[in-house]
């Protein structure tokens, strides 16, 4: 680990000012400390934001839920309002990492976590994300865990977060505080596809602090859930995952919110699947037909062709779990 | 630190794991991966189980840390006794982390069934494969709670 200066932000304003000067925020530290030890991250200044008042979960006036950036993953998952309104969020969190890590890690840090691509984590490997212009070792290397959606000739690393998949499905927004005040960014525009600038991963401007993630109200009753498929049963990142939320009324699907994880360079909103579901009568045939379009844009690599079929089956199964067998 | 007030000056790169092992000489807590991926370094900070390897020591000003050495005073902690009764270890390397994690798991009340315990103890890897008996040990200690 390279030496750094450690400071504690007294308030959000001071944090933003420190961030503008190039300081790196530390929340739970479970991504940052790990990557600093690997020397992937080399911040000069680490700004501890854990004392800031961003640890609240509130219900919004319209009936949505606002989760403060510093809420621990474990607390967000256990929260009664989150569990009751959006079980898909609680499930995605409880299927993430380990109990110990969830006790440390925060919601803001979670959506900002860096890819688990082994070439990104290995400073001796070529990686355009870590060292722009150096190439991408994954393209010709071992790319079994990499993205089949949203990749570019520069980078095919997946975004590893689970709860971000639920946030993408539910059309959440990210609340930010910067030098010029507050703003909100739709979650699906917050994380960026690699394109020609894989080192640019998110919409944050210099100094900007995530203050909260807000999930809007959805028609009720909303059934939702998260399915994660992985190489081992627990304490492992997703090969594929599906976040599904459905509102059924009058015998048809009135609202469908679907996204996939483990397959995209960003959490992947499955708009085509949602469209296929709307207005249709729930049935096993519908689940199969909708899931069939989940991987239409997929561009698999040498070692992850299996994700194409796995993604469709993951989505189909979770549609059936949430929507019911008929 | 284990009920004692300790003041130290350390390089700000020092992890909580290195603090307890190298500076306080408490070598019960183990370093398996140093990357959050094995749980051997599990300790309690302010009552919650966390990974010592990913915790910067400088962030713990005023915090209460309990390691395996501080879990109980005169008698063994019920979960330590349960690990012996159930023969829940072989080499013992993962055991301090398993026990600290198990204490957290019991406090969090995730001991309703064997599968619930397995899931909520999955943050602790045992290379000797003592999982079946570790689950039994946690069940035994949870019963006496
Ligand atoms: C072994 C292991 C397994 C894991 N498995 C999973 C898994 O299965 N699923 C999953 O989703 N995750 C998994 N994770 C990742 C884990 O969830 C993240 O490391 C964690 O959520 C990051 O949160 P943090 O608060 O610790 O972030 P930190 O490490 O503190 O910060 C991460 C990044 O976010 C920035 N940041 C933090 N807070 C803010 C803020 N408020 N505003 C702006 N920037 C901010 C920091 O500057 C830093 O760049 C795993 C991690 C490990 C080590
Ligand atoms: S040493 Fe901390 S998790 Fe492995
Ligand atoms: S007892 Fe040997 S690693 Fe668990």
From TrEMBL, chain A:
SMART domains listed in its UniProt record:
CO_deh_flav_C (SM01092)
User: What domain of life?
Assistant: Bacteria
UniProt KW Ion transport keyword: no
The UniProt entry, under SUPFAM superfamilies, shows: CO dehydrogenase flavoprotein C-terminal domain-like, FAD-binding/transporter-associated domain-like
Q: Which UniProt keywords apply?
A: Oxidoreductase
Q: Name one GO molecular function term.
A: FAD binding
Q: Which Pfam families match?
A: CO_deh_flav_C, FAD_binding_5
Record-linked InterPro entries: CO_DH_flav_C, CO_DH_flav_C_dom_sf, Diverse_Substr_Oxidored, FAD-bd_PCMH, FAD-bd_PCMH-like_sf, FAD-bd_PCMH_sub1, FAD-bd_PCMH_sub2, Mopterin_DH_FAD-bd
Q: What's the top EC group for this one?
A: oxidoreductase
Q: Where is the FAD-binding PCMH-type domain?
A: 1-220
EC number(s) recorded for this UniProt protein: 1.17.1.4
Entries under PANTHER family matching the protein: OXIDOREDUCTASE, XANTHINE DEHYDROGENASE SUBUNIT C-RELATED
> What is the name of the protein in this document?
Xanthine dehydrogenase YagS FAD-binding subunit
According to its UniProt entry, this protein's organism is: Actinophytocola algeriensis
Q: What is the lineage of its organism?
A: Bacteria, Bacillati, Actinomycetota, Actinomycetes, Pseudonocardiales
From TrEMBL, chain B:
Instruction: List the GO molecular function terms.
Output: 2 iron, 2 sulfur cluster binding; metal ion binding; oxidoreductase activity, acting on the aldehyde or oxo group of donors
SUPFAM superfamilies attached here?
2Fe-2S ferredoxin-like, CO dehydrogenase ISP C-domain like
* Gene3D superfamilies the record matches: 3.10.20.30, [2Fe-2S]-binding domain
Instruction: Tell whether Metal-binding is among the UniProt keywords.
Output: yes
- Keyword Metal-binding carried by entry: yes
Q: Mind listing the UniProt keywords for this protein, alphabetically?
A: 2Fe-2S, Iron, Iron-sulfur, Metal-binding, Oxidoreductase
Q: Tell me, what's a Pfam family for it?
A: Fer2_2
Annotated InterPro entries: 2Fe-2S-bd, 2Fe-2S-bd_dom_sf, 2Fe-2S_ferredoxin-like_sf, 2Fe-2S_ferredoxin-type, 2Fe2S_fd_BS, Aldehyde_Oxdr_Iron-Sulfur, Beta-grasp_dom_sf
2Fe-2S ferredoxin-type domain: which residues? 1-71
Pathways per UniProt: Alkaloid degradation; nicotine degradation
- Protein's recorded name: Xanthine dehydrogenase YagT iron-sulfur-binding subunit
Q: Which organism is it from?
A: Actinophytocola algeriensis
């Amino acid at each position: 680990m390279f030496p750094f200066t450690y400071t504690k932000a007294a308030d959000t304003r001071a944090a933003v000012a420190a961030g503008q000067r190039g300081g790196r925020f530390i929340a739970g530290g479970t991504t940052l400390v790990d990557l600093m030890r690997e020397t992937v991250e080399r911040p000069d200044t680490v700004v501890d934001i854990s004392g800031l008042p961003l640890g609240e979960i509130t219900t919004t006036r319209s009936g949505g839920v606002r989760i403060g950036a510093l809420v621990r993953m474990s607390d967000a998952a256990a929260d009664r309002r989150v569990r009751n309104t959006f079980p898909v969020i609680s499930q995605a969190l409880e299927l993430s990492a380990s109990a110990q890590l969830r006790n440390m890690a925060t919601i803001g840090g979670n959506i900002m976590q860096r890819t688990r691509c082994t070439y990104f984590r290995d400073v001796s490997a070529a990686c355009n994300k870590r060292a722009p212009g150096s190439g991408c070792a994954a393209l010709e290397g071992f790319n079994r865990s990499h993205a089949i959606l949203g990749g570019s000739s520069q980078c095919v690393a997946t975004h590893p977060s689970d709860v971000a998949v639920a946030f993408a499905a539910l059309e959440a927004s990210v609340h930010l505080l910067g030098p010029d005040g507050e703003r909100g960014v739709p979650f699906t525009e917050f994380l960026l596809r690699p394109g020609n600038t894989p080192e640019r991963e998110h919409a944050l401007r210099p100094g900007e602090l995530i203050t909260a993630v807000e999930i809007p109200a959805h028609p009720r009753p909303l059934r939702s859930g998260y399915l994660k498929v992985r190489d081992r049963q627990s304490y492992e990142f997703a090969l594929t995952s599906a976040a599904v939320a459905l509102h059924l009324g009058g015998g048809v699907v009135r609202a469908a919110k679907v996204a996939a994880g483990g397959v995209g360079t960003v959490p992947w909103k499955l708009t085509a699947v949602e469209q296929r579901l709307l207005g249709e009568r729930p049935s096993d045939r519908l689940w199969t037909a909708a899931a069939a379009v989940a991987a239409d844009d997929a561009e698999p690599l040498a070692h992850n062709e299996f994700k194409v079929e796995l993604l469709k089956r993951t989505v189909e199964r979770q549609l059936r779990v949430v929507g019911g067998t008929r | 630190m284990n009920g004692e007030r300790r003041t130290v000056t350390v390089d700000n790169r020092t992890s909580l794991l290195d603090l307890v092992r190298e500076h306080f000489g408490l070598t019960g807590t183990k370093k398996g991966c140093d990357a959050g991926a094995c749980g051997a370094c599990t300790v309690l900070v302010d009552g919650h189980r966390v990974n010592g390897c990913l915790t910067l020591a400088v962030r713990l000003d005023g915090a209460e840390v309990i390691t395996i050495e501080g879990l109980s005073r005169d008698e063994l902690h019920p979960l330590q006794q349960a690990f012996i009764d159930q023969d829940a270890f072989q080499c013992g390397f993962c055991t301090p982390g398993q026990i600290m994690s198990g204490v957290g798991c019991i406090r969090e009340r995730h001991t309703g069934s064997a599968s619930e315990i397995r899931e909520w103890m999955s943050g602790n890897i045992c290379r000797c494969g003592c999982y079946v008996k570790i689950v039994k040990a946690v069940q035994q200690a949870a019963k006496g709670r």
